[in-house]
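dumping these here so i dont lose them again. two proteins, back to back, each one seq then C-alpha cells. dont judge the mess
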Amino acid sequence: MRGVATRALGAALRASLLAAALAGAAAQAGEPAAGAPPAGGQARPRPPRATAAAEAARWHARHGHYFERNWGVDVVGVRRVSSGYMLRFNYRVVDPGRAAALTDRKVRPYLIDEATHTALAVPAMENVGELRQVAPLEPNRTYFMIFGNPGGLVRKGGHVTLVIGNFRAEGLVVD
C-alpha cells in the first residue's frame, strides 16, 4: 500500500510540474523569445554595409563638380599605401590655372583624420624632399601627395579632410 501511495504522489508531482511548465509557456506565447526570429519564421536581412569604394564613389558624385568648377581638379581619391603607413592623395588637373593653389610650395598640406582629429603631414625625405609633386601643372594629368600615417592610424573606410591653404576637401573616404 505504501508503494502505491508513493507512486501516486510522484505522478501527481510530475503532473503539477508539467502543468506549471505548460502554463508558463502559454503565457510567453505572445512574446517571442530573445534572439528568436520574427513571427514569420525568417529573420529580416540586414542591408549590406557600403564598401569604402562605394562610399568614395558617392562622395565623388556629390562633390566632384564643385572641385572641378572652383579649384580646377578632379579628386581621384585617398588610398592607403606602404602597408597602411602612408596615405596617397591623387587628383587630376582639369584647369592648371585654378589648380595652382594645390602645388604652392609656401603652403603646407595636411590630412585631418575625422575620427581622431589628428593632422597628418607630408613627410620630407632627406634625399628626395617632400613627397608631393610641385612641377608645372598640365591638363588631364594625375598628380599625387603622400601623407604619413603613423601606426596605421587611418584605416580603410575612414574619413579624412584635406587642407591646402584655402582648399578644403571634407569627408574623403580612404580606399
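---- next one ----
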Amino acid sequence: MKKFTFALMALLAFTFSLKAQQYVSTEPANRNVIIEEFTGRGCGYCTDGHRIANELMAANPGRLWAINIHAGGYAQTSYPNMITPDGNTIHGGFQISGYPTGVVNRTTAAGQSRSAWAGIANQQLSQVSECNIAGMAVVNPETRVATITVEVYYTGNSSADENFLTVAMLQDSILGSQADYGNYNPTQWLNGQYVHTHILRDVISQSAWGDPISPTTQGTLITQTYEYLIPEVIGSPNGVDVDLNNIHFLAWVSERQQGSAYRPILTGCALEMVQGVDAPIYPTIKGISQAGGATCTHTKDIEVNVQNIGTDVLTSMTFEVVFEGETKTINWEGELQQYGVEKIATTLDVPFGTYPVQVNLTEANGEPMDKHATGSVTCIEWAEVEIEGEEEELTLELMQDKFGNHITWEFTTPDGTVLASGGPYTMLASGTGTQLHVEHVTVPANECVQFTIYDQMGNGICCSFGHGYYIVKDSQGNVLFGDEDDGEFGEAASQLISVAGAVQVDITQTEVANVDYNHADFMAHMECNVYPDEVGFECRKVTSPEPMIINGVYNEFQNILGYTDDLEMSTIYMVKAYAVVNGQTYYGPETTFQTWMEGVDELENSVKLYPNPTNNILNVEGDGMNSIEVYNAVGQRVMKQEVNGNKAQVNTQSLNSGVYFIRIVANDGSMVNRTFSVAR
C-alpha cells in the first residue's frame, strides 16, 4: 500500500458514501479514453508521440486525455526530473519494447506504437461504457489542500465484482530539455526549451493502480472523497515545483487485475477544478487577457478574470488598472457566487508594441483588498489602404520554394472569419525550384484583415530549397508589405491590413441622468462603420465657451457612456458627445441640464415662470429674489435686472426667438437656473 507522510508533503484521507449524485450522469454513455504514453526527455522520437496525443485530444475534447509518464531508460533525473514512483509502477505493469509507446484505456498488455493509438482510441470511443465518472477538485491556494470528490455511477454491470478507482494529478507547462530527432512537434518549443505537458506528478489513490470500489452493478452510485495536501516539489533529485495554476486532475475506473496491471480502463474523466478558501470574502484575479483578435485600432479590449473563492456572494469590487503611468478605476457591481468567474472588461489606448499592464483589486463588498496581477497588451502595426468604394481587391504574390506542399495562407477578420485561403501547393521536382502563385482577395471597406502564411515544417519558404517570398499589393499595385527577402519566417508570419473607406458617424443627442449638485451620468448612441479611436463628452457652462473633457467608453450596444463628479452646484451646463474616428472628431447635438444647489429647496420650490414660451413679458416669481440674469444658448449674458421682492417681470421684446436661460439670485446668495423660450 502506498504511504503518505508529512515529510514527503503529502496527506491523504478518503471516505465512501452512497447517496444521490451531484456531478455524474446516470444516462448510459460511451467510453471516454485515457492514453498513458511512456516517454522521457532523452527519447528523440517521443516528441512525435506528444504531437499525436495532442491531436487526438484536440479532436475529442471532453472525451480523451493523455498522460505523459516519464519512466524507463530515456527518463532522466537531471532537472526537470519528472520521474515518479507511481509512474514507474504503472510502466512496470506493461510490456514495453520501445519509446514512445503507450496503452489506450489499457486494452492491451503490451505498449502500442504511436501509429496504433488513433485506431484503438476510436474503437473505445464508440463502445458503451459500464459506468460514468465525474467530480470536482477544490484547491485551497493558502493551505495547498485539494478536496476531491469523485462519483461513479454504473449504467450497466461490470464483469468484475470489484473495480478500481484512480485519481491522478497532472501538470502542464514544465520547461526543460527534450531530445528531438525530426522537429516532430515544433509548436511545443519556447525560446529553445520544450514545454512538457500533461505530466503525471502523483497518483492520489492509495495505490498506483487505484482504490477498490464495489458493488459494480447497474444502478450503483459510489462517491469517494480525498483530502490531498499538494506537495511544493515532486521529484528527487532535481525535482520540479508544483504550480497550482498549471495542475489538473484525472480520474478513471479500471476493471480488474491482469498480471501486474489493472486493466482495462472502463472510462475516465477530467475533474472540474476550482480554487476555494474558508474566508467569507476572497476574490482572486485569475488572469488578464486581451479580448478579441488583432484589430486595426489603438483601442484594445482588456478582460480581467476574477473568481470568487470565498464563501460569501460578491456584490461589489473596485479595481485599479495601471498602464503607462496612468491609473484607471473600475467599479463593478453584481452577484458573483462562490466559485463563479466574472470577466471585468475595460479598454486601453495602446501604442504600437507590447506593454505591461497591472490590475489591483482594492476593495470587495466594502472591505479593503490588496491583490495584484500583471499581464500584457499588444498593438500590432498595420498597413493602411484608403478607398472610395465599398471594397478593395488585394493581390498576393507568393513564390513557393520546393516544398509547396508545406505552404498555406489565409486572410481573416478579427472575429475569425476567413475571407480567403490557399495552399498547400505542389512539391517541385527540382531541389531548389520555385514557382509563382498570384492570388486575389476582396476585402470590404472599413475592415481590418490579417494575412498569415504558414510553413508546416517551421523553416519558412526560403532559402535552402529555393528562394521563396510573399508580397501583398493593393488594387493600384502599391506594395503594402513583403519583398523578395521575406521568405525566412520560421513556422508562420502575419501582417495586419486596414482597408479604410468613407467614414459614417451619427451621434444622437446626449441623455443626462442622475444629476445632483456635482454629478451627472451621460449616454449617447452612435452609429459608426469604423471603430472609434476615442469617445467622450464635452461639457461646458452656458456662461463659458471652454469645455470640460469627460472620457467615455463605447460599449457593445454602440452607446457612448461617461460621467463626472466635477460639476458646480446650481449651474446650467451644455453637454455633447464626441468620437474621434481616423483622426477626425465628430459631435452629437448639445443637451442642456442644471445641477442642484444644496440647501436651496425653499427657493427652488418657489420659483415660477409664466407664460413659457413668451412673446413679450415673462413673469418671474420666487421667495427673496435679489437679481435676475438672462443668457442666450451660446452662453452670452443678454440681460441683467435688479429685483426687490418676490415678483418681477422681464421684457423679452428685444430677444430673438429661441431658448434662453434665466439665473435667479436670492438675497442669501443662493441661485436657481431655469430655461424659457421666446416665440414670435
